[in-house]
Design brief:
single chain; alpha/beta; 4-stranded mixed beta sheet; two-stranded antiparallel sheet; 9 helices; globular
Length: about 230
């Protein structure tokens, strides 16, 4: 997260949604004493919590005053992404950082399909995501958007292919013009995985709440479509 008390805004960092690039651009405005970066042990949860991507219940428990400010009078923004491409991006990052014995970039397409299919069938589940911060990037997006029946971020900005969504967020936050770098694009293209029925069905079932939320809002419904020519960004 990026928090500016002086400018009265909060940027919520939804994983795999260009958050690192955007928070780097906003960094000069961050003036909260917490840095909101990396895993930190929390006695409250008896577990390591990734402060880079605080789910809303974690924010409410660990930083209640900030959570109250977000729901009161601070401007706040979050980026959301197509669940299919977001999942592929999460897979690429997870294997790069936490499954280093598997070099996805060196595998053939068929080998990648087999490895990822095995991963979703044996390793990826809600309990694992909740218990182990290294699975944070697979969190449903709704965990960063709603707490109970409340939508917390005031502005939800859908990602696009040309980066214009960042300019829209900057305009909403009402901050001075700042240089906006291109958001990180993974060199590993896993788009072919969306031709695997088992992987597609997993995404649709695992992120059903995200699809439901996106489809309910006309301005976000376009994100819920299976890409024709998917790529990891």
């Amino acid at each position: 997260m990026i928090v500016s008390h002086a400018q009265r805004f909060i940027f919520f960092h939804n994983p795999k949604c260009a958050g690192t690039s955007f928070r780097n651009a906003l960094h000069p405005y961050h003036d909260d004493k917490a840095t909101f970066w990396g895993p930190i042990y929390s006695p409250y949860f008896c577990n390591y919590i990734d402060h880079t991507h605080l789910r809303l219940w974690e924010l409410a428990a660990l930083f209640p005053k900030l959570f109250d400010a977000a729901g009161r009078d601070y401007r706040s923004v979050i980026f959301v992404r197509n669940p299919y491409t977001r999942f592929l991006s999460a897979v690429a990052e997870h294997f790069k950082k936490f499954e280093r014995h598997v070099h996805l970039e060196d595998l053939s397409s068929l080998e990648q399909q087999a490895v990822v299919t095995k991963f979703v069938e044996r390793s990826l589940n809600i309990r694992e995501i909740l218990a182990d911060w290294t699975y944070i990037h697979f969190s449903p997006q709704i965990w960063f958007i709603m707490l109970g029946d409340r939508v917390i971020p005031r502005r939800i900005v859908p990602m696009d292919s040309d980066g214009a969504f960042m300019n829209r967020a900057i305009s909403y936050l009402n901050v001075s013009t700042i240089p906006l770098p291109h958001y990180n694009r993974s060199p590993l293209d896993l788009g072919h995985l969306l031709a695997v029925p088992r992987i597609v069905s997993f995404i649709q079932e695992f992120y059903a709440v995200d699809f439901e939320f996106l489809l309910a809002l006309p301005e976000l419904a376009g994100l819920a479509v299976l890409p024709v020519s998917p790529s990891v960004r």
